[in-house]
Amino acid sequence: MNIVSLLPLLRGLLKSVLAPLPIFWLLLVAVIVLYLAGKKKMAKWFLGSSLLWFLLISSPFPQKMLLATLENQYPPIQSLTRKSNQVSKPDSMIHILVLSSGYESDARLSYCGQLNTKGLGRLTEGIRLQLLLPGSKLIFSGNAGSQPLSQAEVSALAAQELGIVSTVILTFCEPWNTKTEAEEYLKHFGTAYKLYLVTDAAHMPRAVMHFRNAGLNPIPAPTNFIIKKNNIPGDYTDYFPSTGNIRSMEIVFQEYLGMLWAKMGGN
User: Fold this and answer.
1) Following DSSP, what letter does each residue of 118-174 receive, concatenated?
2) Of 73, 195, 211, 262, which is least packed with CB atoms within 10 Å of its CB?
């Protein structure tokens, strides 16, 4: 087994270990090991570090600040006809690529119901842009993984459930991550089309990096913003530690580690 074949395994291992909660549990394991080894002073230090780490990852302030640095890099696309109050002319040289996010097959549910929350948000934004840009093609990507249909196929069927005709939909059923999604698009269409890229706001910086590395220059169309900007005072409980904050911190870790991995030449 060569080093190239080990890279996906290494990537998966690092992704599982270098996450907020696994780091917390590793610190607690270190506490137990050090205590049993008779190094009680060091065990106390690791215990304090683990509690401090848990407070940090569950607090709303660090995750909001770090998420904002990701989500604020590319603004959301507003109505493309707001200034002129006119309907855009049909343009067949426009593509809207919706990146995959996962789904779970369930014969009881509609295709929309089988998409995860992120997938629904991306689907909605893709459909919104397609309606604003007559003549454009709506492209879905993503492989099947362990599911019976590919992510691309399920997203396409979900779009049709919401009234989008099949003639404006294209699918890429092979890509398994953002880098391969960029490579697959480039292989099929090159740089001739005006490309709108739809993905989560937090994921957009990494996605744009992959697409630009592939030689493409997409127009970012971020969605699924976690940090909402408004002047409405929040409830006092919003300032308490919570599991939701830990989930947001997991997204921060995933994106920054993903960008670091990509800069090292990984997928």
Assistant:
1) HHHHHHHHHHHHHHHSTTPEEEEE---TTSSS-HHHHHHHHHHHTT--GGGEEEE--
2) 73
pLDDT digits (tens, 9 = 90+) for 61-103: 888 899 999 999 999 998 665 444 455 667 679 999 999 998 9
**pTM for this structure?**
0.85
Calculate what percentage of the chain has a pLDDT beyond 70: 86
Beta strands at 94-98 and 194-200: parallel, antiparallel or unpaired: parallel
Residue 113 and residue 217 share a domain: yes
Whether 38 is covered by a domain: the verdict is yes
Tell me: the pLDDT tens digits for 145-200? 889 999 999 999 999 999 999 999 999 999 989 999 999 999 999 999 999 999 99
CA distances from 223 to 19, 57, 147, 207 (A): 23, 24, 25, 13
**Same domain, yes or no: 63 and 178:** no
How is residue 109 annotated by DSSP? S
- 194-200, strands of its sheet edge to edge: 169-172, 137-141, 94-98, 194-200, 219-223
pLDDT tens-place string over residues 99-123: 999 899 999 999 999 999 999 999 9
Residue 247 belongs to domain spanning: 13-71+241-263
**In a shared domain, residues 206 and 101:** yes
Are 218 and 143 in the same domain? yes
> Residue 231: its pLDDT value, please?
65
CA–CA distance, 7 with 64 (Å, rounded to integer): 32
* 62 and 168 inside one domain: no
Same domain? 120 vs 161: yes
User: Is residue 181 assigned to a domain?
Assistant: yes
> Are 155 and 140 contacting, i.e. CB atoms less than 8 angstroms apart?
yes
